Every structure is written in C-alpha cells, then in structure tokens.
Amino acid sequence: MTADFVVWSGMLVALWVFTTALYRLTLHPLSHIPGPKLAAITQLYQTFYCYYGNKSRFYQKIDDLHAQYGPVVRITPNEVSLNDPENYSRIYHVGSKYWKAPDYYRVFGAPAAFFTTVENRLHSLRRAPLNTFFSRKSVINLEPVVQDKARLLIDRLKNGLDDGNDGSGVVELHDLFSALSIDVASDYSFHNCYGLLSAEGYGNDFSSMVRGVLKSFWFFMQFETVENLALRLPPWVSSNFSPALKRYNAMVEGTRQNVQEVKNQVDSRHEKPLRRSIFHELLESDNPPGVEDMTDIALTIIVAAAAATGNALSIMAFYVINDTNIYQKLRAELIQAFPEDQSKMSWSTLEKLPYLAAVVKESLRLSYGVIGRLPRIVPEPGAEFNGYFIPGGCTVGISSWTMHRSPAIFPEPDKFDPTRWLDPAESNRLQRYLVSFGKDSRQCIGMPLAYCELYVTAAALFRAFGDLEIVDTQISDLVFDDYFSGYHPENATPLRISRRNKTLEDN
User: Fold this and answer.
1) Which of 166, 230, 440, 494 has the fewest C-beta atoms under 10 angstroms from its C-beta?
2) Rg for the chain (alpha carbons), in Å?
3) According to the model, what pLDDT value does residue 77 have?
4) Buried (b) or exposed (e) across 161-171, using 16+ Cβ within 10 A?
5) How far is residue 281's CA from residue 297's CA, in Å, rounded to a whole number?
6) Which of 237, 238, 139 is nearest to 189 (CA)?
7) Sign of the CA dihedral 245, 251, 254, 255?
8) Residue 217 has what pLDDT?
9) 411 DSSP 8-state letter
C-alpha cells in the first residue's frame, strides 16, 4: 500500500508539473511573449540567478535576455521585462494606474508602510502626512543636521588618514559614507541619531545587519511558503537562526519603544519638542497610525537609508579620485567658489556649481538607486509595448540598470563622464532618463534629503582633500548584488583610500 501510494503520488506530481508547464507555454496570457522557455515555466529560473555563485545578478541576466530576444521579454511565468527607455514614463508617472506587484513587495514585512502599499490611492493617503516633512523646504530648514554629519565625517577621515588607530593611514570609505547616511536619516527623521559615524568601524555591523535582513527577504520572495512559516515564529526563535535577524529584531524593539515614547508625549500634550520627528507628523495627521504601523514606517526609512546614498557617494569617490582630470576640475571649482577653508557651503549654493552637479548626476546614474526592476501590475484592459500586448493583471517593469545604461541615451554608458551633463539643454534631456529615485507618485520620498547629503558631503570631501588615492580597489569590486538595494559583493576589496604620500607600501 505504501509503495503504491508513493508511486501514485509521484505520478500525480509529474502530471501536475507537465500540465502546468504545458499551460504556461501554450495557453497562458503571456505565452506569445518571447523569452526562455524555462523562465516561462517556473519562477526557479529567476531564483537560480538570484543565488548562483552566492551572487544576486538576475538584473544582468535580464539584460542578456533582451539582447537575445528583443525589447519585450518574459522573465518569469507572469512577468515581462521591458528595455525601451521610452516605455518608462508610460508606466511610472504621476497618476499612473499601474500598481506595485504584491508578490514582490510583500516580503518586506511592513504592510502599513507607504513604501509597500500596493494600491496607489491608499499609498497617497498614507504618504501625505510626511510629504511636507521631506519636502525641499523642510530639508533646507534642517540642513544643519546634514552639515554636522559631513563635518564629523571629515574629522573621522582626517584622523584615519593621519594613521588613525591601526597606524595604516588607510580608511574604508564606503563604511564611512553608509554611516553618514544612516546617521542623517535617524537624526533628521526621528531626532534619535544612531551615532554610527562615532562608532568603531563606522557601524559596519549595522550595514551588514541590514544586508543580511534584505537577503532573507530576497529568499522569502522566491519561497512564499517558507516566508509564511518564518513570519509565524516569535522573534526570540528567528533571532537564533541568524545574527543579522537577531540585531534586526533588537532594532525593531528599540524603534517601537521610541515610537511609544513620542506617542506618550503627544497624548499627554507636553511642551512641544524643539524638533519634530516623523512620528509627530504621523500622530497629528487626520488618521494617525498605531504604534506597530509607525514602527514599520520607521524601519523602511532606515533600511532605505542604509545603502542608496552611500552607494552613490562611493561610486563618486572611486571615479573622481581615480581620474586626475575630474579630480582637479572638481576641486578647482570648489576652491574658486569657496576660497576660505571654513567657508559655509550650503546645499542651495552647491547645486548651482555646474561641474559638481554633473558629478553628482553621473554618480547617481552609475549607482542606480534600486538596481533591479520595479514590477507593476498592468491595469485593465491591458497595454501594448513594442508591438506586444500585455493583458491586465500581468506584471511588467523596467530597471534603472537598463535605463542608465542605454547606449542610445548615454553613449559609452559604462564610462563615468560628467561632461555629458554640462550642456544645460542636454542635461535637461538626459534628466528624463535618470531614474535613481523613480519618477512617479511612488518616487522616493527621501530624494531631497539624499540630494542634500550628496552635494554637502561631496563638497566637504573634495574641498578638504586634494591628495587622495584609491588603495587596491578595482572597478570589478563595485559591481552590485541586487537585494532590492544594491550591495557590493561580500568578497570584494572594500573601497579604501589613503593620501598619495602615505600608502600601504610605506608601512
């Protein structure tokens, strides 16, 4: 009986696999879309390229598929990738009827956060209380937070370059940039700075924790059943599976306590705080969320801050320092605009410097923001792209990696070339295709704050130092693994710098 049961069970599974594959290849609404048959049959095609060789490079494989199959490619049973840059604004625009794909965004485990909200109208309602807080005007008012962190970064950098604690005179710059971004986000948003710039190793363990958590989310995206089981586990159990999850659970609890303290303050109508946080904005909105929901919102902001701005600053530093011509031009512009060492370099003044602005934009182009595709659900009754009809309910998307590396838009796309942005008319044209922060109503809410960080930090760094050099890091070390946010490979040589007259060989 047992043997018969196993045989019949095996036959039923084989029949299910066969009929599912046959349906997806011949009768599925996307069966007419070109692409590899294995991708059309199973999600495991994507999973393989998200984990093969301990890398997550499906976004690169998608590029290869477009080269083989054309501008419209089926990359999973229910998802289509596009690579024609002109299609981007058809999907991602203010008022778009394309919704975020639930199966992609559910894994972040923050159902109340506006970032993961699927339906656009509900997203607008949830995001509205914070729009003013993250507006350009508010960022300018709180710019001293960014300036303070940039000054601390320069102080830490000077100390490290002048031998520092280990006597090498070499500093891992990416960790420093990530620490700045997280400190700015936590101080600006919550008035509760994490203090990573002052921590040993610049909070490298914090960034590693966020990376580890996002890798877990990425795994859940491939295997929903495992996710459902994991979410039912109490935090003390999940903490034992991974050091990253243990630290993340501690951060969740700390954030929850912070939210509760602000709620108690608002409920008791104590004297208004000297500085407001996002919690004050949310609690005083027309429909204030609960403590758990505000915790979700806070965590998504911190996780977002942990990578994107630091990546842009790292890409900028690598290319500028490695190119004497770019380095000298940028530094000359800064010195001319701010001849005194202690000159006040405000964001509003810095963004008017043409070469610095060009360097910032080129750094954003080659750091990509969210490097993978941003999947959206096609609304009814469907849409046509490059001659192919995509039915409503199917998923479609374009990645910043694809947009920023289109040779038709950006000639020699792998080249770091600030001059492509110097002509005002051309820069205005290219700006349409620079999508590091998105382009629609779901555009990153922290964009003004990120721009302020980029300009202020870049100016502080290159105004203060004219003799930096890269130590050992190669361009191959700067490739990104896609865990929604981009992360350099764990085995890559870190972005390390020293002064030109102080190298490792001198020690």
Assistant:
1) 166
2) 24
3) 94
4) beeeeeebbbb
5) 12
6) 139
7) negative
8) 72
9) S
Which of helix, strand or coil describes residue 388?
strand
Q: Are 202 and 196 in contact (CB under 8 A)?
A: yes
pLDDT for position 6 = 65
Residue length of the chain: 507
Residue type, 249: N
Tokens 């990416």 identify what position? Answer: 174
Report which residue type is found at 487: Y
By C-alpha distance, which of 450, 456, 466 is closest to 149? Answer: 456
pTM value is: 0.90
Spatial neighbors of 129 by CB under 8 A, at least 6 apart, are: 281, 282, 284, 285
* Residue at 109: amino acid letter: G
Written in H, E and C, the secondary structure of 274-295 is: CCCCHHHHHHCCCCCCCHHHHH
Is the omega angle on the peptide bond into residue 381 within 30 degrees of 0, that is, cis?
Answer: yes
Token pair in block for residue 196: 């990573």
Q: What is the pLDDT of residues 204-242, one digit of tens each?
A: 878 788 887 777 777 766 666 555 555 555 665 555 556
Nearest to 353 by CA among 339, 328, 336: 336
- What is the Cα–Cα distance from 402 to 414, expressed in whole angstroms? 12
- Assigned token pair, 359: 């360097």
Burial track 367-404 (b if 16+ CB lie within 10 A, e otherwise): bbbbbbbbbbbbeeeebebeebbbeeebbbbbbbbbbb
Q: Tell me phi and psi for residue 210, to 5 degrees.
A: -65, -40
**Considering only CA atoms, which of 48, 83, 46, 98 is closest in space to residue 400?**
83
397's CB contacts (< 8 A; 6+ apart) are 79, 80, 81, 82, 91, 101, 373, 374, 375, 376
Query: Smallest Cα–Cα separation from 40: which of 48, 49, 32, 52?
Result: 32
Instruction: With residue 73 as reference, give the H or E element that holds it.
Output: strand 72-76
Give the tens place of pLDDT for each residue, 50-59.
888 888 999 9
Structure tokens at 447: 């964009």
Residue 505: what pLDDT?
40
List Cα–Cα distances, 175 to 24, 153, 236, 307, 364, in angstroms: 45, 11, 29, 10, 18
